[in-house]
Amino acid sequence: MMNYDVIVIGSGPGGYVAAIRCAQLGFKTALVEKYSTLGGTCLNVGCIPSKALLDSSEHYHNASTSFGSHGILLSDLRADLNQMIERKTQVVLENTKGIEFLMKKNKIDVHHGLGSFKDKNTISVEANDGSKTELSAPKVIIATGSKPIVPANFNYDKKRVITSTEALNIREIPARMVIIGGGVIGLELGSVYARLGTQIDVVEFADTIIPTMDVDCGKELMRSLKKLGVKFHLKHKVVAVKPGSENVEIDVEKTTTGETFTLSADYCLVAIGRRPYTNKLNLENAGIATDEKGRISVNSSLETSTPGIYAIGDVIVGPMLAHKAEEEGVFVAETIAGQHPHINYNLIPGVVYTWPEVAGVGQTEDQLKSAGVAYKIGKFPYKALGRARASMDVDGMVKILADKSTDEILGMHIVGARAADMIMEGVTLMEFRASAEDAARMSHPHPTYTEAIKEAALAATENRAIHS
Predict the structure, then answer these.
(1) Long-range Cβ contacts of 87-91 (<8 Å, 24+ apart)
(2) 0.70 exceeded by pTM
(3) pLDDT in tens, 239-266
C-alpha cells in the first residue's frame, strides 16, 4: 500500500492541473492514468492534435486560394496529408512530454494503469501486464474525462464509421465525408478536410449548427463554411449507417416531411457529443452513483456524496471544456487546502476553432429572452474593419448584449479572425461588470481586429458605431 494525501484519477487538463496545484499546496500527490501517455483526450486525441491539423489545413487553403492576391505565386501546390499527420503527432508528443516534465518537477508520483475504487480511500491500479498496485489517500479527485457517443445502430467500426479519434489519423484525403452532428467537434474536423478538398455533408437534427452558442454565431459560421463547399442538412436525422470495405452509406430522413435519401462517402464521422467516462471506476465501492448520462453529482465544493471524494471536468454537469476542467482542478485543490476559491461558470468562454473562429462568453440572446431580461444589442461586421480588409478576413461579426437599463455587458459573441483570442476582452470586461459604454470609451489600437469590439459596444450605446 502506498499512502498519499491526494490521489487524482485521470491526467487530462483537469487531472494534471489538479495534481500540480495539490503539490504546490504541499500535498503528497499521486496521479493515475490508464494510458501510457499523459494529457488525456485533450492533448492526445482532442484539442491539441485537432488544432495542429486545423492550422496545417488553413495554411494550405490560404496558399491555394489567396496567396496569389498577396503576390505570392506558387506552382505544383499539393497537400501532403501524411506530413500533416506526422507534424500533428510530433506536436502531441512534445506536449505530453511537457506534462511528464511537470509531474517530475512537482514531485508527483505517476501510476500508469486502470484506476478503480476498492473503497472510498483505496484506489487499485491495474497495469497493462495485469499487475496491481494499491494506493491510499483521504482525498481523491475523479478527473477521467469523456468518450465520444456512438449509438450501436451507427455500426462504429473505426474504419469507415469513425469518431474524432480516428479522424485525426486518416492518411489519405477523402473525396467525400459525411459528418453526423453540427456541433463544435464535427465542424472543426469537417473544416480541416473541406480545406483540403473533401466534399463535406453535415447532417444535423436541430435547425441550426453549434446550437449551444448564440444563434447569430451559427448563422455567420454556416455562411462561411458554405463558401468552402460544405453542405448542410438541418432538421435531418440519420436512420441507418452501413459501412462497407471501401465506403459507407448513410440513410437520412428529413424530420419535417419524412423524405428519405442516402448519402455515400468514404467516411462517416460521428460527432453527436460525448459521454462521461465513469465506467470501470467501481464507484459503487465508494458509495457514489451516477445519473442516467453517467455523470457524477457534486455539491458547490465539487465534492461527491462521499466526503473526501471530488469530481471535476467532463464527468460532472457543465460544458465539456478543457479550461473548465482546469479551473475546477485548481478549485478542488484549494478547497482541500482550506482556501475559499471561486469559479464564475457564466464567464467560462466557449470557442470553435474553425476559420473564421467562433467565440462566446456570458448569456446568449435566446437565454436572455427565456429569462425575461430586457437587453439591447450592438453588432459590428468584420467587413467594415480595416484590419480585416487588409488580411482578407472579412467574414464575421462582433455582437454585444447589454442590460437595457444598466448597460452592463451580459454577453459577447464573436465570429471572425482571432475570435478565440479576442473573447478574453469580453471575459475581462464582464468579470469587472463593465458597461457597453465602458468598452466603447476604451482606446483600441488601430488597425486591429479588437476595434470591432469597440464598434459593437458603440452600437449598443445609443447606436453610435462610427464605421458602419
Answers:
(1) 87/52, 87/56, 88/49, 88/52, 88/53, 88/56, 88/168, 89/49, 91/48, 91/49, 91/52
(2) yes
(3) 999 999 999 999 999 999 999 999 999 9
- 457 three-class SS: helix
What pairs with residue 112 in β-bridges? 33
Q: What is the CATH number of domain 2-148+275-345?
A: 3.50.50.60
310 contacts 139 by C-beta, under 8 angstroms? yes
| Under 8 Å between Cβ of 370 and 454 | no
Q: Determine which one of 111, 233, 236, 446 is catalytic.
A: 446
The pLDDT confidence band at residue 462, using thresholds 50, 70 and 90, is: confident
φ/ψ of residue 133, rounded to 5: -130, 140
Q: Do 2-148+275-345 and 356-460 share a fold?
A: no
3 state SS of 111: strand
In the predicted structure, residue 226 carries a pLDDT above the cut 90: yes
Query: Would you say residue 56 has pLDDT above 90?
Result: yes
**CATH of the domain spanning 152-272, picked from 3.90.1590.10, 3.50.50.60, 3.30.1330.130, 3.90.780.10:** 3.50.50.60
Dist CA 418 CA 339 (whole Å): 36
Distance of CA 274 to the CA centre of its chain: 11
Segment holding 114, helix H or strand E: strand 114-119
Class of the domain covering 356-460:
alpha beta
The packing angle between helices 13-24 and 81-105, to 10°, is 20
- Bridge partners of 352, per DSSP, are 358
Long-range contacts from 172-175, C-beta under 8 angstroms, 24+ separation? 172/81, 173/79, 173/81, 173/197, 173/198, 174/198, 174/265, 174/266, 174/267, 175/199, 175/266
Nearest C-alpha neighbor of 8 from the set 152, 151, 137, 190: 137
From the list 94, 42, 122, the residue with the least C-alpha distance to 322 is 42
Phi, psi of 402, rounded to the nearest 5 degrees: -130, 150
Alpha helices, DSSP H only, in 262-385?
322-336, 365-371
Annotated domain spans of the chain: 2-148+275-345, 152-272, 356-460
The pair phi, psi for residue 273, each rounded to 5°, is 125, 180
Measuring CA to CA, which residue among 338, 336, 330 is closest to residue 21?
Answer: 330
Is residue 446 part of the annotated active site? The answer reads yes
CB-based contact 358:208 (threshold 8 Å): no
pLDDT at 134 > cutoff 90: yes
Task: Kindly report the average pLDDT of the chain as a whole number.
Answer: 97
